[in-house]
Amino acid sequence: MATNEVPVITIDGPGGSGKGTLSRLLAKRLGWHWLDSGAIYRLTALAALRHGVDIDDVPALVEQARHLNVRFGESDDGEASIYLDGEEVSAELRTEQSGEAASKIAACPEVREALLQRQRDFRQPPGLVADGRDMGTVVFPDARLKLFLTASIEERAQRRYKQLKAQGFDISIDALFREISARDDRDMNRPVSPLRPADDAVVIDCSEMSIDEMLETALKLAEEKGLVA
Ligand code: DC
Predict the structure, then answer these.
(1) Ligand 1, atom 15: nearest CA belongs to which residue?
(2) CB 159, CB 177: distance < 8 Å
(3) Is 133 near ligand 1, meaning CB less than 6 Å away?
(4) Is residue 226 part of a domain?
(5) Closest Cα to atom 4 of ligand 1
């Protein structure tokens, strides 16, 4: 199968909309590969921090992006395990600080360009579920099904709060709310690849939906497109 014939489902949306959990479960259900593109931006920011690279030093950031030494695996409980230079960094990547640093470097067109092919390389048979901000608009514009998830900021902050608390992080809901709003603002208003639904995306408001309902909805849409065996 030629790479451009490998079917792709894109799931874009803001932080805390549920796209990470949904895309991971959908990929598992279909037996397809999964791309967590936010993790790639988070890893680039973390690599820059660890190598003492200033967040405004564009050529050095691009170097980090080009030579990222990362590996994606899965832990026994089905969660993603992510390694940078051989060291597991999954927990560190999930913090809101890491999301904020990722959002800052993601506004730089040169960094986005350097990460483009790395993301497209995930398109392997039998299929790919790709989650991010610009999966349907820029990275996989020919995707067979594009979903765009939304949820109220209150609901997204609550979800993140519960997730981070469960992982043992000591955080305040007010601070989280402010950080998520600032990140939404930056991601939606940057000139390159801003967070927005593709013209042919199905927009789903997930504020009141459980993860099971989200998965059911996504599977039904995939079925309608002939993507479920
Ligand atoms: O999905 P996430 O919260 O892990 O993403 C972290 C940041 O990375 C997000 O605030 C903006 C950036 N990002 C992006 O610009 N484009 C993507 N496709 C994915 C993430």
Answers:
(1) 106
(2) no
(3) yes
(4) no
(5) 38
Instruction: Note the pLDDT tens digit of each residue in 49-107.
Output: 999 999 899 999 999 999 999 998 887 777 789 999 999 999 999 888 899 999 999 99
| Residue 223 is assigned to a structural domain of this protein | no
How far apart are the CA of 107 and the centre of ligand 1, in A?
A: 10
Q: Is residue 199 part of a domain?
A: yes
How confident is the model over 27-51, as pLDDT tens digits?
999 999 999 999 999 999 999 999 9
**In the chain, how many domains are there?**
1
Q: What is the distance between the alpha carbons of residues 146 and 202, in angstroms, rounded to a whole number?
A: 6
| 18 within ligand 1 shell (Cβ under 6 A) | no
Q: What is the pLDDT of residue 107?
A: 94
Q: How far is the CA of 229 from the centre of ligand 1 (A)?
A: 31
CATH number at residue 185: 3.40.50.300
Strands 145-150 and 128-132: unpaired
Residues 50, 89 contacting (CB under 8 angstroms): no
For residue 26, being part of any structural domain is answered with yes
The answer to whether the CB of 187 falls within 8 A of the CB of 195 is yes
The model's pTM:
0.94
- Interval between CA 28 and ligand 1 midpoint (Å): 22
| Structural domain range at position 126 | 7-218
Ligand 1 proximity of 15 Cβ (cutoff 6 Å): yes
Q: How many whole angstroms from 119 Cα to the centroid of ligand 1?
A: 13
Residue linked to tokens 């497109």: 225
